[in-house]
Amino acid sequence: MKLRVFLALLCARAARFALRLTHRGGTALPGRVAMRLCPDILRYLGRDVKTVLVTGTNGKTTSCQIVEQLFAEEGVSCFSNKGGANLIQGIATAFALRASLTGRIRESYAVMECDEATMPEACRQLQPVCILLTNIFSDQLDRFGDVGNTLSVIEKGVRSAPNAAVCLNADCSLSSSMAESLPNPVVFYGVETELYRQRVREVSDAPRCLRCGAEYSYTLRTYGHLGAFRCPRCGYGRHEAQVAVTGLLRQDAEGSRVLLRLDGEEYEAEIAVPGGYNVYNAAGAAAVAMALGFRPESAVRAMGNFRCGFGRMEKMELGSCSARMVLVKNPAGCNQALNFLANLEGEALFVIALNDRAGDGTDISWIYDADFEALLRLGERLRGVFCAGDRGADMAVRLRYARFPMEKLRVFTDYDALIDELSRQSAPVVIMPTYSAMMELRGKLAERYGLREFWE
Q1: Bridge partners for 323 per DSSP
Q2: What is the pLDDT of residue 3?
């Protein structure tokens, strides 16, 4: 076994070295090579490391960034899969490249972003000490089908790690439903205040009770199907949250300031990135702090001190204009990007880069469930919309169905031409790409403007 591990780790290093020579990230291939030589290498490398897994439909990368900062605030060593490669090969890469050739890892903890479908294998091999589930929304229909399938796969993974503390979003009727059948200790987190001054039209992925099929009622609805839900027929409803955002003190293009209730005490906390959905990500990270017995003050500092991941509300300077890049992949995430745009002060330009490759989900019908009609309500504040990517023309058709004016709409088939046009803008720009479009567009932006590489 030790010889096999040694060879696997040596080959993983060689693969990463070759990839970096060609200026590629090497966030998955080294792990794939290592697992080909030693299929259970994660079980071996993870035996002395306490792993925190972060999964769910939206918010995984940002939640991981805050949790990683939490460990820094506590003075506890950890490593993570920073590049966002969250399938089992990407997780194996992160472990293989932190290990010595004998298989020893110095860090005490690992913080791993984990794709929903990868949860069963990741939990089986790593036996995490904590699992953070952000939310469950309709996503990548070609992979997951309906939300019930996503819930089942995640629950299967959690059941194979019965000793892990599980942090569940109390406002998500889907993910919080697992609590009643799990043997694991559970920490609930949520939001108990409005998140937006203006809101787009929302489509619920879970309008009806999982138990009896009656339609939920809400005393507070934050976005999508998230909120203080209750079934009027059978009584199933939101669990009380031990960690909750109880007030929104400030929200602007740079971030938010909130009131946070954590283990019975109330704190004011600054969240370093904007967007109402990032308030949830911060609350989830605070739940991890509670589950692991860390100080509440460390959770509060982590929210304000972390650095956002690439493409996740990432701020960048592009010549004369300032831009935010917001990764999207489903109607719920898209609507939150539109909410962010709607709540900006002053003028803005909107860029949508739509692809339909394997990493994006090959079914782009979701763009008809997102509320692009909300763009009309921005009026003269919206200077225009630029469409790009493999399916940029289809995105333009969607906007025309929304009756968006032709004179404010442009389609770009070349990213260099798009970047040239962006560099001439003076108004802030919001860039909303799908995953593979983000990798391509951001790669070109990194070359031109010296942005950090995505794996850094």
Answers
A1: 316, 429
A2: 80
H/E run at residue 211: none
**φ and ψ at 76, to 5 degrees?**
-110, 130
Q: Which amino acid belongs to residue 56? A: G
Is residue 22's pLDDT more than 80?
no
Nearest in space to 328 (alpha carbons), one of 314, 312, 342: 312
Residue 158 identity (one-letter amino acid): V
The DSSP call for residue 452 is P
Q: Are 9 and 101 in contact (CB under 8 A)?
A: yes
Confidence of residue 454 (pLDDT cuts 50, 70, 90): low
Name the amino acid, one letter, at 245. Answer: V
- Closest to 252 (Cα-Cα) out of 270, 268, 264: 270
CA distance 455 to 128: 23
C-alpha span between 415 and 243 (Å, rounded): 43
Classify 351 as helix, strand or coil.
strand
For Cα atoms 211, 217, 223, give the angle at the middle one, nearest 5 degrees.
Answer: 100
CA atoms within 13 A on the CB side of 275: 28
CB-based contact 404:376 (threshold 8 Å): yes
Phi-psi region of 196 (alpha: psi -120 to 50; beta: other; left: phi over 0): beta
Whole-prediction pTM:
0.91
Query: Which residues is 215 bridged to in the sheet?
Result: 208
pLDDT tens string 112-137: 999 999 999 999 999 999 999 999 99
For residue 26, give the amino acid letter: G
C-alpha radius of gyration, the chain, whole number = 22
CA pair distance 288, 286, nearest whole angstrom: 5
